[in-house]
Every structure is written in structure tokens, then in C-alpha cells.
Amino acid sequence: MSEKENTNLRKEIFTLPNILVYIRILLIPFYTVFYAQGHYGVSLILLAIAFFTDFLDGKIARMFNCVTDLGKTLDPIADKLCQFSIALCLMFEYPLMISVAIILFIKEISMGIMGLVLLDKGGKIFGAKWYGKVSTAFLDVTMVLLLVAPVFNVTISQTVSHTLIIACDVILVIVSVLYTRFFSVKIKEASKE
Length: 193
Hints:
Layout: H1 3-13, H2 16-36, H3 40-63, H4 69-90, H5 98-120, H6 130-151, H7 158-192
Helix pairs in contact: 2-3, 2-4, 4-5, 4-6, 5-7, 6-7
């Protein structure tokens, strides 16, 4: 690798938006452990910091034109790692949340594999589709609601929590099917070229 390529790689790795993504990933074990130990307030503060870095990284990348391929790859990975870790945390209070964690894990692994197949066929990876964004928003709002409840000593009835969790399951399955169809079409198109 030439000195110029090495310098460019360093610049890509250490952009401010990418550093914010690294911070978000590094916070995961901390808020998970604090939540598991019953320190809900501390966990929520760390999670709020993680959400804030998620908000900032994209804004800064676009504002200062420092969008990188590494950032485009790491940001959604960090988002999914955060979602998965929150689902695991919530299993302590809401055991049914294991279904969300399992479906989310299967969905993300299958999408990752389909993305790699698409790249191998010469296709390009597309950003999140509208249904993926709706799913993420619903999942995030549900998980934040369930996370915040113990901090304020609010009890969410089992009926409400189960309804929200099952709704997350259904939405994740529907979105998985839609993404599978989308990737199948794109893989076929890339194979023909």
C-alpha cells in the first residue's frame, strides 16, 4: 500500500462521523451491563448518548461532506447492534422480547448475506427502504418506551407489553419478506448484466 493510500485510509477511518459510530458501538456493553444490574437510570443516560451520536454522525457527514464507504457500512451495523443489545436488555423485564431478538438477528444475518451475494454479482447496495425505516422507528419507540418505564417506576401491563412486542415481531417478519423480495430482484438483475 502506497503512502498516499495509507493516508487516505487513515482519513477515512478517523473522520468525526466514524469516530461517533465507534463511540456508539463502545457504549453497547456499558449500558447493557448497567441495565442488567438494575441501574436503569445510568443505562438510559448511556443509551441517550448513543442515540445522540447516531443523530450527529449522519448530520456531520452530510454537512461537512465527509461521507465514507466505511461510515456507510458501519453506521447500520452499529444501529443493529444497538437494537439487538436493547432487545437483550429488555428480556430481563420482558421475557417475550427474546422473539424480537431472534427475528432481528435472523433478519440482519439474512440481509447481510443477500447484500454480499448482490455485491458478488456486481450489484450495488442500496440504502434502507421506507418499510425498513418504519420498522426501525416502531421498534425503537417500543424499546425506548419499555426501557424508560422502570426508570420512572411505571408499570406497563403485560397486555400492553405483549401487544407491543408481538407487533414488533409481525412488523420485522413483514419487513424481512419485503427485503428478501427486493434483494432477490436486484440479484437477478445483477446476474443478467
